[in-house]
User: What shape does this take?
Amino acid sequence: MAEVPGTTAGAIRAARGATAAREARTDASDWWFVTQVQRSGTGPWRLELDGLATLAEVWVGDERVAVSESMFVPLVVELDCLPENVLVALRFASLDAALAKRSPRGRWRSSMIRAQGLRWIRTTMLGRAPVFSGVPAPVGPWRRVALVDASAPRLVDRRVRATVDGDSGVVELDVTLSGVAVGDSVTVRVGSAVASATVEGGRVRARVEVPDVRRWWPHTHGEPALYPVSLEVGGGRLDAGVVGFRDLAVDRSDGGFRLSINGVGVFCRGLVWTPADPVALTSPEETRRMLERCVDAGVNLIRIPGTMVYEDDAFWSACAESGILVWQDVMLATTDPPETDEFRALLVDEVRGVLQAVSGNPALAVVCGGSETEQQPTMLGLGRPPMAALDEWLPAVVAEEAPGAVWVSSSPSAPPGSRALPTHVGSGIAHYFGVGGYRRPLTDVRSAGARFAAECLAFSIPPGNDAIEADFGTVAVAGHHPRWKAAVPRDHGASWDFEDVRDHYVRTVFEQDPASVRWSVPERYLDLGRAAVCEAFAATLAFWRRPDSRCDGALILAARDLEPGAGWGVLEHSGVPKAPWFVLRRIWAPIAVLVGDDGLDGLRIDAFNDTGVAVEARLEVLVHARSGVVAHEETLPVELAAHSACTWSFDELLGRFTDVTHAYRFGAQTYESVTARLVAADGRVLSEDVYLVGGAVRPYERSVGLSATAIESGSGEWSLEVATDGAAQYVSLDLRGFEPADSWFHLPPGGRRTVALRRTGEARTVAGRVRALNSAATVAVSTG
Assistant: This one.
């Protein structure tokens, strides 16, 4: 029994478990999906197949009625008559067999895949590239299949353009309907605005003006206002989705790439998307939960890479409602796009269909010609050869179908007209892995000069200990066991993997030998690895968010692990946040204060207000001496205008020179930590950041005096108050039945932090343990 929409591997998982699904060689065989359909009514009928992966035949009874050569192009079969009971069958041919047939070679070999013939086939790299080793290749009806009455009014396709004209919004609608007659009257509604039209040759064209329009904003900068669109025809109502009104522009001057929404520049921060369920490729509920987490973490841009799949209507609706922008890659990655008429027809139909389906959705911001489509030949010494797909076909389709979106030729890519190479990170669209895969020091981010990092910070990030024990039996497997290593990302043909990268930063940042620590204390080995990734995230993302960094975007690779283990995802395979998730959540908050080391210029404090409302607060700065006492305490009233940022040096606040960061090395280190807070008038802490003086290498103490007390409010909500006697580095909260809003943070001597908790299980009270990286002791949660 197979669910539709779904895949062969999804059916195997349901019948025999996740391990069997991961091990299934789905491309090796032909697969049939067969069902008996009992229909009612006289028809005519329409069989709608929104996505067949990949080389497919459609059979109705004993007749083959259609074939499909693209995973990404929907198929519609018109059926004039049907018996009351009819067999509908879908045959999916072996992709391995198709790839065994010789086809013309490309101008270069892709380093991502083994089967170079994939460049000819419109399907996903997911499960077909070694980097996705634990994910089965998707085969089957992965999108909706429906047999519908063709005589009933139905929306067949849509083109919607929403623009802003002064205080008004304008919607231009061009849709095709079935089941209607020429001359039928149609009422088009956009919110409360109404326009009339008539059916002409099955098409309806209308222009609707919406007065006093509310503009759509990314959630970090305002409210994502939306308007429903519907058509009333023949006594019925057809839903045509939603629209949002916003102005989008891009500034590419001086090699940059700065998006602006409604005239306001946006620092784009986000994730390279991975499907919520990479096996079945459908999970609307889990997709929405992932996007809700993204909003909570300050994510305002998601990139769908050319290695994955186009997402469904539920994803796009949720992005529009949540206020998340989308960077949409065309499904091209590293291979040489063929230039035949047949390939062009498939690719153009694919992209046109995707863009028409999301037309009018304000979330669509960027359309890109694929992942590393230009970088791959460049790294092989071929330069950037001409490519008809990127230079002619796709720009024309985007200009026609998505005029409100920005076109980018590839990710990464040089600025248009520039002689720079796609491999250069200091201009255009970059994939920045200097901090990460190329093992550059954490300071490299300051000299690299990345202007927009469409991919960055790829690390093999360990999940929580509970998840490791649930999936692998014990934390002792980490770092060496074959099952564990199988899930660690690696580049095709490389002699290293991304766990080696993480271990490198443990060695250089914390001056610890990861192998020695792993042999004796595997739990600490994992914590040092998590903390090393947190250090990399903090150093990179905090610098890029500075107003003077010249960087306008950072998208982390990747959103979520595709399988259990230490993948690239900042979310575990189950969707639970990993350690660096909390770091980016603090740095990317719409209202945030960040403390950083500016070398001989001392301590720097940046405060941000991305929201559309001015913020009145006080900036509190506390400096603790090594003895634990407060050596300096400064308070400054601040007003952060909407969409603004302010910067101070600590010496400026204090009014005199103080070597608070011990940059000059005069005598012994005097200070232990600096805490900066933005506090609202009602006493709420809007943001807090703690800087530990002296760097990441700290004494490993028996105890720093941690305590953790769970407190229940009158409404049944729980919070956890964490306190410490000494400075606590990377305090982490491991709780049962509850998830913390914050974790992996520093505390100053005598510091405390109250963390909101979200119930995830059936537990009535909070239980668990709290630990710090610089303390051997862990403490149990007590109840206050």
Q: What stands out?
A: The first helix runs from residue 8 to 16.
